[in-house]
Write the structure tokens for this entry.
Amino acid sequence: MNPLSLTINGQHVFASHDLSILDAATAAGIEIPTLCFHDSLHETGSCWMCIVEIKGKNRFVPACHTFVSEGMVIETDNETLNSMRRQSLEKIIEEHSGDCMGPCELSCPAGCNIPDFVAAISAQHDHAAIKIIKETIPLPGILGRICPAPCEEVCRRHGIDSPISICSLKRYAADRDSERSDRFVPESAPESGKKVAVIGSGPAGLSAAYFLLLNGHAVTVFESSAMAGGMMRYGIPRFRLPDSVIESDIATLLAMGVEFRFNTTFGKQINAESLNKEYDALFLAIGAQAATSMNIPGEHEPGVISGIEFLRKASCGEEQQVGEHVIVTGGGDTAIDAARTAIRLGALTVTILYRRSKHEMPANTAEVEEALAEGITLIEHAAPTAIRTVNGTLQITAIRMQPGEPDTSGRRRPVPVEGSEFTIPADTIISAIGQQIDPAAANSAGIGVEDNGELQVNPETLQSATPWIFAGGDCVTGTNIAIRAVEQGKRAAHAINLFLNNEIITAQNQSFNSSFGARDEAPPAFYKRKPPAEKVTIPEISLENRSKSFREVALGYTEDFAREEARRCLQCRCSAINDCRLRELANRFAPLKKAETHDHTGFYKAEAGDISMEREKCVDCGICVRMLEQLEYDGKFDNTLMTESCPTGAISLTAR
């Protein structure tokens, strides 16, 4: 019998009489989306994702079980078809529930694959863990120590007892890697011949350099100081972040080929014009390293120093006589670090003045508690109003504050209480109320500057109005946490890579993500999968050994402790996330209208032998039922084939 002649998407195709439109299209190299189809089973067409249009007949049919006929003219891809597929997909997703990604990795600004690296540690695969981490975070030793861990705040383990110590496990993986003779260094793409200049070696600059090196570009990092690290080195005390850890993380970039030029200040020795002669792109990561003024009388009296300058001198080993009594103003990380440093420099008393309550302090909560445990006093609801020197002694006057109406941040604005002023004597006063971009550095950038001093760039791509210049980190976002700066560096590297390849510069697409909701919104049965198990305490040096020492306080997990803590993870991430057909279709036909909340009967995960079944993820495609029928008929049963055929991860191999 002669083959039939038909046309698919304008392409002339020959096909035998017994083929479906889907088979004929596939044979011709034309892809039609499917969900409920499996090539070893009878077709059902129940999902309607493979719908096609038969031209001239105004007919829309499922391609999987509609047979070809002579002279058919078929379209598989047009806006009408895609709109119908989108509607079908929205209905299917409405019946689907579960986490694609864990809440922890969704909350990580850099998008770290937390469940997989924790699982690797649990399985004693430390080398795999660091490889997973460095797909998104190039500074794991540093971030494992200083990150305030927004991921832990949303950990679903809260529904049982306490969250996983994610940052400490990240630190564990980084520390184990640093001990190896064959440390993990990611493989870079072939050399592109392009050169990028990065200004600043803080978390944004180093992260941009790392991902640009991965893409095969040559990178030179210019740093005004004598060593790399930016505020990580000069703004964070060594008892939180030792120099050796900074050097260890930077060693990976050196192995990848980064070039550093130290003691080189942008706007002095170099500028955009001079760099443009040698480099194809420029990334500005100049940070926010200027102290914010208190704007009170006497703040320039001898003995008053900014928190940034104080910490920089301490990190450089410069001798500082703080005296017996120190006052610190502010409630951020710089204030807490300065207070803890002053104790170690010999102060007998250190008092922090903060205009709001302890619970509203922007500083890392754990660091606040460490400061209080070390004997530092916190006076809440107090703001400085004046500083003066009386008979050679500094005095700071403060006024009591009370919560007023909410400000733009949603917090209640502190309001002075009339007549509540009080005065405290001090030998040293450290001002740590905030940081801002150095105006001189911003003006040297050669691009637009916002009213608040931040550099003007496209917030999605971080490209400026001058196409070859990009900027990111604190100089764009304002003072923020280091992991946010890492994300900015990664985002910039993506855009710069597109620019260097003469491609359209766009932000990275966000993948579809199904979720049970907030950390406490998963079905109750979800939290019963693991018994309560208290968080493994992170060993620390004793309080009595801290007062005069800059030794690192947190000692980190031993191998046994790390395995024990990693096993507490609930593994919210779907095991099929990388090959889920439903997710792939959702990404392909985005944007989808938000599906209405579906009332599920409750979570359950049944296990039989090597197979797990999660009913909430099932979309009733029927593949598993038809496969069971066929396998039973054939007298064979293949667990791997069964799980691989599921398009949503509802059926998976049981983790062992």
Summary: Residues 4-94 form a domain with the Ubiquitin-like (UB roll) fold (CATH 3.10.20.740).
